Amino acid sequence: MRARSTATLLLVASATSPALAQDLQIVECSLGCASGSGGQITCSTVDIRENEQIDVVFDRPVDPASVAAAAFQIVDVANGAVPPGQLVAHPEDPRRSSFRPELIGTGTGAVAFGFGRNRAYQIRIPGTAQGDAGPFLTGTDGTPNTNRLLCTVFTSLGVGPGFTRECVATVNSTGLPARIDATGTTSRLANDLTPEGSGLPALGVGAFVVGSEPALARIGTCARCGDFGPSALVGTTWYAQYVFRDRLPTGAAGVGTSDALRFTVHP
Fold first, then answer.
1. Does the pTM exceed 0.90?
2. Among 23, 72, 213, 260, which one is least packed by beta carbons within 10 Å?
3. Residue 153: its pLDDT value, please?
4. What are the residue boundaries of the structural domains of the chain, listed by start?
5. pLDDT digits (tens, 9 = 90+) for 88-135
């Protein structure tokens, strides 16, 4: 029976693993994988959405140059084909590497994704503890990944809202980082997406902003809450973030930001 985990589990390398302590290790997986013996990380078949991002987090920063298809392997179980998508190294969270299924236009106004509907895909990240030949995802110090990840996903859940969390917010004057969430859907027809902010200074002034491109220095173009506007065409990707006034540690007035949500507009 396939089961979908709703929580990210902490993975601990097995004490029987022959890997050296300084080697890179996987510590989290968005599929809810569990640690196994001898440096093997596995999970039962997990039901996912066609547009779902697969995230793997390591114990320290990953070298972006090593985030490649041979080291982060995803194949269609039925035919061995590699699904269209993008392997991502996150500059705002360098311990995390991801696979994002590609958004595909069909020519009829509808959209499809790199993960086909009702298909099984095997996800495999080679590790040195299992004697894999590599190439490996490596740390910025050049050490290879230790614990092999091996999971199968089945795309039975259709297309989801597609909210993906981006960026890492710093602690503000409340002592907590600000967080952005959203209710509703990313359907252009429904037009019911409503952002929500938390971890914010009391009585502070702020605004939700939306942009069509991510940027560490530029947040985006202002947009009215709950209204995609004329530029938000079906199939386009957008980023939402909350920006607010805050008091700096020096006592001077400053500006703070939440983390961000990435989403794709659906019909």
1. no
2. 213
3. 95
4. 9-154, 164-264
5. 888 778 898 999 888 776 665 566 788 999 999 999 999 999 899 989
How far is Cα 197 from Cα 142, in angstroms, rounded to an integer?
A: 39
Q: How far apart are CA 232 and CA 227, in angstroms?
A: 9
- pLDDT at position 8, please? 34
**What's phi and psi for 151, nearest 5 deg?**
-140, 160
Structure tokens at 266: 């659906």
Q: Which amino acid would we find at residue 13?
A: A
The two three-digit tokens of residue 244, written as one number: 């607010």
Distance CA 126, CA 75 (A): 14
- Amino acid making up residue 136: F
Which stretch of DSSP H or E encloses residue 28? strand 26-29
Phi, psi of 109 (to 5 degrees): 95, -15
Kindly list the distances between the CA atom of residue 56 and the CA atoms of 1, 8, 27, 149, in Å, as whole numbers in the listed order.
24, 10, 8, 9
What SS3 class is residue 62?
strand
The structure tokens 């359907």 sit at 187
pLDDT value at 180 more than 60: yes
| Average pLDDT over every residue of 245-256 | 77
**Joined tokens for residue 99:** 């696979």
Beta strand pairing call for 194-198 and 206-211: unpaired
Q: Give the count of beta carbons closer than 10 Å to the beta carbon of residue 99.
A: 23
The domain 9-154: what is its CATH number? 2.60.40.1220
